[in-house]
Design a protein that fits this description.
heterodimer, A: 366 residues, alpha/beta, 2 domains, five-stranded mixed β-sheet, 5 strands, elongated, B: 300 residues, Rossmann fold, Alpha-Beta Plaits, six-stranded mixed β-sheet, four-stranded antiparallel β-sheet, 11 helices, globular
């Protein structure tokens, strides 16, 4: 136990001091998340389309110049058919539909484009606040005012999402990029540890100490699992705070999935390390495996949009199963039991590839 | 004297290459023993089979009375090993390496500080191993091998690639380590190192031990050849060649060298011709012994 902890501590320290490793496993994927999250979120239309269904007092009561200001941000259309308006939101023609029933303002938006939904809700939040302020009768006079008579009950704003099954952008980006980050981290860690320890004979040095081989391998696995967990926590927190990722019920099931995925990627790294002789060659081979795997597994683009033959290929990739399963529990709201098959696939993959790697591995370079 | 190391007819072949071809040796407790030979002679493979890193194709090795293959945990905590490449944890500082090894060998971590001090590395304790100089890294590597106070210390080319000053510093440390009662077995391709440090030296070439004895006896065994050197251009070399047919006479732009087993008459002849400018003479060395034993110039 002491040996395991000592070795894990040594490995962890080494990792934390490796700027390149930190960059590629943590910073780089985060940059990707921000880039893709920002690009996909805001590029379609600088103004968000909003349909106002029936009279909406908080907007209607605005003076002309107030309306003009709102129009700079939102492309407002009017409608009387709530059903049709919600359909438009659902299929993405409109960012949101807004209804005011008495004092309740309801925004129907789509989880598909959180950035435009965010724009709509912040504008209406402002309108509602302003009208409340004016109605409270205080120093009033600010431009948007709402024409409610007499006692001014507060106008309340609520939002309601129309679609929750068709996931887009941040909802699939987070599991995708997270999976890619974990695949990169674990694959490279295993490959380079194997090669560097072989080159430097650290492994041989350790076999001549009272340390068991089990402790050495255990430490490598333990540290990689720790790093993967840290990546997961960081990614989910960033996605929730910066991009309003909504976590669904069984999100905690992502943890065992990530751990099983890490084992699968460690085995790929082990294989890459067993097949190559230098760190450079191992990195190249790991890249050659991880990057296509990320694309084919839907880490950056939704896998449902690609041709079916690509989908069939992707079924053999552990990242595909990790992505699907994490998406299911993190965003789709599936129960913990539904992803057990994927968990099994990941563990089985890890076992099979690790056994192959061990067969191919040679201690001597010559 | 009980033997710390006993190797019997060790053999190892890699494909076509016979790396070690029947090596037997005994190292007494407390002895400083050297395996001397050029690169590729089979020194490292021999040492690794004795340490228990490699399985011999045939033959056997015992250290402290215990067979070294298969790996034995009880033996592991009684021997110290320094490998040819410095086997360190990546990006850990010198002090952290020693602490890690102390924990792995289950000795108090304070022992690490002690060794830093002993090996003159206290000021480098906070430096990551990647930034240590060659000499510092070698000293740290040997310090790591000594962390658990082993009875036998194995060193594989401990001074390879070091500058003369660093090499001399390390020799002092190794001598002190041996003087403290530990058996030391090292490989080296530096003749001088073997001559200065070792109680006994095994000259190894093409995977075989050619001769094994104290450096003094090895030198005495070869027909002693003296090398007499004088400044060039004082005397016709052909004259000397005619006069001393057994001697080897060579001249280049700066010096005239006469290698002879009977230096007296040569010196007299040089004096007769007033050709004594820049005279130097040295007796036989281990290098001459190597030449005589293997039939070829020593090339490290």
């Amino acid at each position: 136990m002491t040996s395991l902890l000592t070795l894990s501590g040594a490995l962890m320290r080494g990792y934390l001091r490796d700027r390149a490793a930190l960059f590629f496993t943590i910073v780089f994927p985060l940059i990707f998340l921000f880039l893709l999250g920002g690009l996909l979120g805001g590029a379609k239309n600088p103004r968000s389309n909003v349909v106002l269904v029936g009279p909406v007092a908080v907007y209607d009561g605005l003076p002309a110049h107030g309306k003009a200001k709102v129009d700079q941000v939102l492309a407002i259309t009017r409608s009387h058919d709530l059903h049709a308006a919600l359909a438009d939101v659902r299929n993405g023609n409109e960012a949101a539909a807004v209804v005011q029933r008495g004092t309740g303002v309801v925004i129907y938006d789509s989880g598909a484009s959180p950035s435009s939904a965010g724009a709509v809700s912040s504008v209406f939040q402002y309108l509602v606040d302003a009208s409340n302020l004016a109605a409270a009768g205080g120093s009033g006079g600010s431009s948007p005012r709402v024409s409610t008579a007499g006692q001014a009950p507060r106008v309340a704003l609520s939002t309601s999402q129309v679609d929750d099954k068709s996931l887009k952008e941040i909802q699939y980006l987070t599991p995708g990029i997270l999976g890619w980050a974990i695949a990169t981290g674990a694959t490279f860690a295993a490959a380079s540890t194997l090669i560097v320890w072989r080159q430097r004979k650290l492994m041989r040095r350790l076999t001549l100490s009272p340390v068991s081989v089990r402790s050495v391998i255990g430490a490598r696995i333990l540290v990689s699992l720790g790093i993967a967990l840290a990546q997961t926590v960081l990614f989910v927190v960033v996605a929730v705070l910066a991009f309003h990722l909504k976590l669904s019920g069984a999100w905690w099931m992502a943890i065992p999935l990530v751990l099983a995925g890490t084992l699968a990627f460690l085995s790929i790294g082990l294989l890459a390390g067993a097949l190559t002789k230098s760190v450079e060659a191992a990195s190249a081979l790991a890249n050659l495996i991880v990057i296509p795997m990320a694309f084919l597994s839907g880490a950056f683009i939704p896998i449902n949009d690609v041709p079916s033959w690509v989908q069939s290929i992707s079924q053999v990739l552990p990242l595909r199963h990790l992505n699907d399963a994490v998406l299911d529990v993190l965003a789709r709201g599936d129960g913990p039991v539904t992803v057990l098959p994927q968990l099994g696939v990941l563990l089985g993959f890890a076992l099979v590839i690790a056994l192959i790697a061990i067969r191919l591995f040679r201690w001597d370079d010559a | 004297m009980t033997n710390a190391v006993v190797a019997q007819d060790l053999r190892k072949t890699y494909g076509e290459l016979v790396a070690v071809d029947g090596v037997s040796l005994d190292v007494g407790a407390g002895e400083f023993f050297g395996l001397l030979g050029p690169n590729g002679a089979g020194k490292t493979t021999t040492l690794e089979m004795i340490e228990g890193l490699r399985q011999p194709d045939s033959g056997s090795a015992k250290v402290l009375g215990l067979p070294s293959w298969p790996r034995n945990q009880k033996l592991a905590s009684r021997i110290g090993v320094q490998l040819q490449t410095s086997a360190f944890f990546e990006r850990l500082t010198a002090a952290e390496q020693l602490r890690a090894f102390a924990k792995l060998y289950r000795v108090p971590v304070a022992r690490g500080e002690e060794l830093l001090e002993l090996f003159g590395l206290t000021s480098r304790g906070g430096t990551q191993v990647e930034r240590l100089s060659g000499g510092e890294a070698q000293r740290l590597s040997i310090a790591c091998a000594l962390v658990h106070d082993p009875e036998v210390l194995f060193l594989d080319e401990p001074t390879a690639g070091l500058d003369p000053q660093a090499r001399r510093n390390l020799w002092d440390l190794l001598r002190a380590t041996n003087a403290a009662g530990r058996t030391v077995v090292l490989t080296t391709h530096y003749i001088e190192e073997a001559e200065i440090l070792c109680d006994r030296v095994a000259i190894i070439d093409h995977g075989r031990i050619v001769e094994c004895d104290t450096p003094e006896k090895l030198i005495r065994k070869v027909e002693a050849v003296a090398r007499i050197t004088v400044g060039a251009g004082q005397l016709d070399p052909d004259l000397l060649r005619k006069r001393f047919p057994d001697a080897v006479v060579t001249e280049d732009e700066t010096e005239l060298v006469i290698a002879s087993s009977d230096p007296g008459p040569v010196l007299a002849e040089l004096a007769d011709h007033h050709a004594l400018r820049d005279l130097t003479m040295r007796g036989a060395t281990l290098e001459d012994a190597f030449l005589a034993l293997t039939g070829r110039e020593y090339r490290s």
